[in-house]
Design brief:
The protein is an all-alpha fold. Helices cover 86% and strands 0% of the residues. It has five helices and no strands.
Length: 257
């Protein structure tokens, strides 16, 4: 068809130009005759070729449109499939991540948070079940923390009670020590008083000794003087009597406590 168009189109243009040339020469009859004999037939043929070209173009466009629609449908289904697969993969990954997080935590996050709040409020007696969780989970660490806190607080409480008992014993010991200190102070006062009295007694004894020594010296002098004056030899009996007289003349020392 394209070759027929290529062959007809130059002839048609030549016929049209001939008609125009005859019309310029005012040869109407020859122009009409050319039109009827050649131009009109060629025009109809060209028109049919163009119509066929148009139909072919429309068919090709329709085919391309249908192909485009089919392609769009295929792409749409491919996108939908990819989206479904992506959603499935996302759900699977989300489920896997959730299970991993729950396994690492050791249970539902809200439950673990509630247990931590109970421990923070001072509840160290509520048992935490860790039989179904791993040793590296948060719940296991929370349970271990609870047990260690309970042990530490128990030790602190025991130590506090011991300190209280020791403080009471120290207070009682201080009271007893204060009482004994008062008693010792009273004993020291009595001892000081006794020492004062003893000092006075010793002083009195020293005075008496000095008086006795002076009297003894005087008696000795008197005896020597009497011996020189009498110039007589005394018998043992007379000497004994003389000694008695001399000792009788010496005053007795006073004894005081």
């Amino acid at each position: 068809m394209l070759a027929d168009f290529d062959a007809t189109w130059p002839v048609y243009l030549a016929s049209v130009q001939k008609v125009e040339e005859l019309a310029r020469q005012d040869d109407q009859n020859a122009a009409l005759a050319e039109m009827r004999e050649n131009t009109d037939g060629l025009h109809v043929k060209i028109r049919k070729i163009l119509i066929e070209f148009s139909n072919l173009r429309d068919a090709s466009a329709k085919a391309r449109a249908e192909a485009g629609v089919a392609l769009v449908g295929e792409v749409t289904w491919w996108i939908v499939g990819c989206a479904v697969v992506g959603v499935g993969i996302a759900l699977a990954m989300g489920l896997a991540v959730t299970r991993s997080i729950v396994r690492q935590i050791g249970g539902e996050p809200a439950k673990v948070a509630s247990l931590v709040e109970q421990i923070a409020e001072g509840d160290l007696q509520t048992p935490i079940d860790t039989s179904t969780v791993g040793g590296n989970s948060v719940l296991h660490a929370v349970a271990l923390m609870q047990r260690r806190l309970a042990t530490a607080i128990g030790s602190i409480r025991t130590g506090t009670e011991r300190v209280t008992v020791a403080s009471r014993e120290i207070a009682a010991g201080n009271i007893d020590l204060s009482s004994r200190t008062e008693q010792q102070a009273a004993s020291l006062e009595e001892t000081a008083s006794s020492m004062t009295q003893l000092t006075e007694t010793v002083k009195q004894n020293a005075d008496n000794a000095r008086q006795a020594n002076a009297l003894a010296t005087r008696a000795t002098d008197i005896a020597d003087a009497g011996n020189d004056a009498v110039h007589v030899e005394l018998t043992p009996r007379s000497w004994t009597l003389l000694q008695g007289v001399l000792w009788a003349s010496i005053p007795k020392r006073r004894s005081s406590r």
